[in-house]
Design brief:
The complex is a heterodimer of chains A (318) and B (364). Chain A is mostly helical and 318 residues long. Chain A has a domain at 84-283: MetI-like (MetI-like fold), CATH 1.10.3720.10. Chain A is built from 15 helices and four strands. Chain A has helices at 3-15, 20-49, 76-83, 85-118, 124-132, 139-150, 155-163, 165-171, 185-210, 214-221, 226-237, 239-254, 258-263, 271-281, 285-317; strands at 53-54, 57-58, 62-65, 68-71. Chain A has a two-stranded antiparallel ribbon with strand order 1-2. A two-stranded antiparallel sheet of chain A has the order 3-4. In chain A, helix 4 packs antiparallel against helix 12 (239-254). Chain A is globular and about 85 Å long. Chain B has helices at residues 47-55, 97-107, 112-125, 141-153, 171-188, 199-205, 223-228, 233-238, and strands at 8-15, 24-31, 36-40, 62-67, 70-71, 82-85, 159-163, 191-196, 208-213, 216-221, 243-252, 257-261, 265-268, 279-284, 290-292, 302-312, 316-322, 328-334, 349-353, 359-362. In chain B, strand 11 (243-252) and strand 12 form a beta hairpin. In chain B, helix 2 (97-107) crosses helix 3 (112-125), helix 2 packs parallel to helix 4 and helix 3 crosses helix 4 (141-153). Classes of the chains: A mainly alpha (318), B alpha+beta (364).
């Protein structure tokens, strides 16, 4: 996907002439997989998105008629995406919820990963296991369980009411009324943060655990209090983990469909839902494909930035 | 051990990690201002723990550390007027050389112009003027070492700590850097405590050395004192090469003694505090022994053996002489002449001799 990565892979292939074929095969399999199951479907979507509907089937892009080859590219759907307020608003909402979820995951996940990485070496495998434990249960069931916890009378809801948190949430316009948590932006973000937190914690833990603690001693020796040492040394050195974790949370959150369906409400329309409606309610495949293509673009932009950073980081390490 | 008048005073310091053995056991030291003081010992002898207590990374179980009249107890590392050059440097990989050196100055809240001025001066001092913008990984090992030194000197500490300062460099670079490092430290005039397991490093750099073993200080002295008059078997054996011969005092005069060993009779030109018949060890350094094919005059300080092997090192030749009792004597002969006529060959019988002023009698 990223040019520098691919280029460096080929460079390495060339420098190992003896094992060239074996290596090419090993690297080729995942690339073939991506080609068949990502690139080709994406191209099909792209093609559908610029096609015109002919009652039940799409018109071909290339047509031979009266000795003329005509190429018809219909960009009308893309135009309407940017003209129709609904789509733009939904994209913005998706980006907003993804960003808010990422921010909360980082805010909760960083201290989490930090104390895990600084725990006794003997305890770390157990702590790591606990982070991964939720994966043993179906994600659908776990999200569903939040319905029971957050609905009126659910014990999380009762605790929130007892603590008076609902007053704050009403003031912040995140829930419509006191004591009502379900099907609100609040319940949606809770569900997404809960689901994606491990994806933030694991890469952060991986970078923090590798850090050379003598650097913090050196910082202290030069007059940095532990707090300053944390911000000047630990945080900058865990940048790669912060970026990796944020990407792993942000990207799937943009297109998230199941969590908004289960925990969201009328005010939390996200692009995944719109996509579903276009495909299966309106049966407007070209429109749906256009929406999907734009989502992919939205995801590729941060991914490219991430890859460029990674490439720079590996370059720097050499 | 400590008289309590030094610039840095270490009073009866103990560090017990509670794991059975005591890392630092009742250590007392007095270090004068401007001195380069080396803690020398094998790994695990407690020298690094002692250094870390000076830096503030470890707290003494008991005892006091006083720097320039100020008791350092309870002072965290970031408040101590002490800076350390870490083993393998611990340079901040995400910061440029310039920012690495400026790190400590910025923590002190120095104005920007003053920080810049001080960093530039430090870069000049370690001859890295053009390297300010580089990241540490873009520098060679020797350059990284100089950045680490500049960083630890930038705040003008009252005490500089060096933890195995040259341990990460290869041999040739190490020899060059030793002298350069000492020159820079003297130029700045900072009091310095260094830790090393390398006796050459301690000998060439330090004004005084403390030899440590198993948490204790065995001997404190100038490099010359430590080498020429070691106080114990351990010190004699740890510093340089030495031939140790066990024997008994047979003649005890005020200004000389004779010691009867298995292979020979030693006539030692200094008196000892001991009694007749007392078991002692006589130590002779390899370079203080002469070898010859013909029998030298005199009946003491002479022994005959067979040359087991002979290794030519250019500057000197190393012989291993097997004595009648089976003991092996190491002899190092400086190659003063290009081709010595009477140099013994491997397999040949040869006489070893040394002067009465070259041995040391060890009673412990």
């Amino acid at each position: 996907m990223s040019r520098p990565l691919v280029a460096s892979l080929f460079e390495r292939l060339r420098s190992f002439p003896v094992h060239r074929h074996g290596r090419a095969a090993v690297i080729g399999i995942p690339y073939a997989w991506l080609l068949v199951f990502f690139l080709l479907p994406f191209l099909i979507i792209l093609k559908i998105s610029v096609s015109e509907m002919e009652t039940v089937r799409f018109k071909d892009l290339l047509e031979l008629k009266d000795g003329l080859v005509t190429l018809t590219i219909n960009v009308g759907h893309y135009v309407s995406i940017f003209q129709d307020d609904l789509y733009v608003r939904t994209y913005v909402a998706s980006l907003k919820y993804a960003a808010v979820t990422t921010a909360w995951c980082l805010f909760i996940g960083y201290p989490f990963a930090y104390f895990m990485a600084r725990a006794k070496a003997a305890h770390q495998p157990a702590l790591l296991m606990l982070v991964m434990l939720p994966f043993w249960t179906s994600f659908l069931l776990r999200v569903y369980a939040w319905k029971g916890l957050l609905m009126e009378g659910g014990w999380v809801a009762r605790i929130l009411v007892a603590l008076g948190v609902d007053h704050l949430l009403v003031k912040a316009d995140l829930v419509p009324a006191l004591g009502k948590f379900m099907n609100t932006p609040f319940s949606l973000v809770i569900g997404m943060v809960y689901t994606y937190l491990p994806f933030m914690v694991l890469p952060l833990y991986a970078t923090l655990v590798k850090m050379d603690l003598r650097l913090l001693e050196a910082a202290a020796d030069l007059g940095a209090t532990p707090w300053v040492g944390f911000w000047k040394i630990t945080v900058p050195l865990s940048k790669a983990g912060i970026i990796a974790g944020s990407m792993l949370v942000f990207i799937p959150c943009i297109g998230e469909f199941v969590i908004p369906e289960l925990l969201g409400g009328p005010r939390t329309l996200m692009i995944g839902r719109v996509l579903w409606d276009e495909f299966f309610s309106n049966n407007d495949w070209p429109m749906a494909s256009s929406v999907a293509a734009v989502v992919i673009l939205l995801i590729i932009v941060p991914l490219t930035i991430f890859n460029r950073y990674q490439a720079e980081a590996t370059e720097a390490r050499r | 051990m400590s008289s309590g008048s030094g610039y840095l005073q270490i009073h009866d310091v103990v560090k017990d990690f509670g794991s059975g053995s005591i890392a630092v056991n009742h250590v007392g030291l007095d270090i004068a201002k401007g001195e380069i003081f080396a803690l020398l010992g094998p790994s695990g002898c407690g020298k690094t723990t002692l250094l870390r207590m000076l830096a503030g990374f470890e707290t003494p179980t008991s005892g006091r550390i006083v720097l320039d009249g100020q008791d350092l107890a309870g002072l965290p590392p970031y408040l101590r007027p002490i800076n350390m050059m870490f083993q393998s440097y611990a340079l901040f990989p995400h910061l440029s050389v310039w920012d690495n050196i400026a790190f400590g100055l910025r923590r002190d809240g120095l104005p920007r112009a003053q920080v810049a001025e001080r960093v530039e001066a430090m870069l000049k001092l370690v001859q890295l003027g053009k390297f300010g913008k580089r990241k540490p990984h873009q520098l060679s090992g020797g350059q990284q070492q100089r950045v680490a030194l500049a960083r630890s000197l930038a705040k003008r500490p009252q005490l500089l700590l060096l933890d195995e300062p040259l341990g990460a460099l290869d041999k040739k670079l190490r020899e060059e850097t030793q002298v350069e490092l000492v020159n820079i430290i003297h130029e700045v005039g900072v009091t310095c405590v260094m830790v090393t397991h390398d006796q050459d490093e301690a000998m060439t750099m330090a004004s005084r050395i403390a030899v440590m073993s198993e948490g204790h200080i065995l001997q404190v002295g100038t490099p010359g004192e430590i080498y020429e008059t070691p106080a114990s078997r351990f010190v004699a054996d740890f510093i340089g090469n030495v031939n140790l011969m066990d024997g008994k005092v047979v003649v005890d005069e005020p200004d000389s003694v004779e010691v009867e060993c298995a292979a020979c009779r030693h006539h030692v030109g200094h008196g000892i505090t001991g009694t007749l018949g007392m078991p002692v060890t006589v130590a002779v350094r390899p370079e203080k022994i002469r070898l010859s094919v013909s029998r030298p005059d005199g009946s003491t300080n002479v022994v005959q053996g067979t040359v087991r092997d002979k290794s030519y090192f250019g500057r000197f030749t190393l012989y291993h002489l097997v004595l009648p009792g089976g003991q092996v004597l190491t002899v190092s002969e400086t190659n003063v002449e290009r081709h010595r006529e009477d140099a013994p060959e491997a397999g040949q019988a040869a006489w070893a001799t040394w002067s009465p002023t070259s041995q040391v009698v060890l009673t412990q």
